[in-house]
């Protein structure tokens, strides 16, 4: 794992967008795993502004609420159209989200896994982190080998996401279809982005704490190509922050990103 501490949110977002843009330019038919949440909105805005082509790119989102149709303004399908898909040259047929409206969620989950496999697997997976330690919607005690399935959302998650539902926690769906922790670990590269003081505690547990199903995000410790991009506030709880800064300063591969570090 590489922890990449940035001075502020803007630069953490810019660095994340730059990594994605670089991968897309190097491999236009990239299979890109996408995430939602407030943290990602500015990443998508920067990708749109970069003008990079998504024409040959295939995308798979981490998760979708159960019971929200794709045209519901709070669905992640709407979120993706609003923040990215409607503003780039991506082929809508190549964009995939789990089908939260399926009458058989188990079958829909298996179909999602099959679609990822048929696409050749995910090259780069973007991740946020929830205050309950989730990646995707893998709430505490999600098996570290879990695959796409439906999960009950914790009260912490429903509270955290209530802002998008007019502040009404009860309006947040109770379930979601999400890639499993195992599905996420099968991707070829992970980039987790976190910003803000509210994430400092859970980031420290995910990065430096024990590997545990209580904090699904701690599973990133098992991945062989994982970057954790943080602003100063989200990095504030890390004990070995000086070491992570030392590594970044000395890694030549970050030389073309010094403006952001
Ligand atoms: C939702 C998504 C997660 C994401 C989280 C972060 O819960 N399902 O994948 O990590 O939001 O949200 P935010 O960026 O708004 O803090």
TrEMBL record:
Keywords: Hydrolase. The keyword Hydrolase applies. GO terms for molecular function: glucosamine-6-phosphate deaminase activity; identical protein binding. Pfam families: Glucosamine_iso. The keyword Ligase does not apply. SUPFAM superfamilies: NagB/RpiA/CoA transferase-like. This is Glucosamine-6-phosphate deaminase.
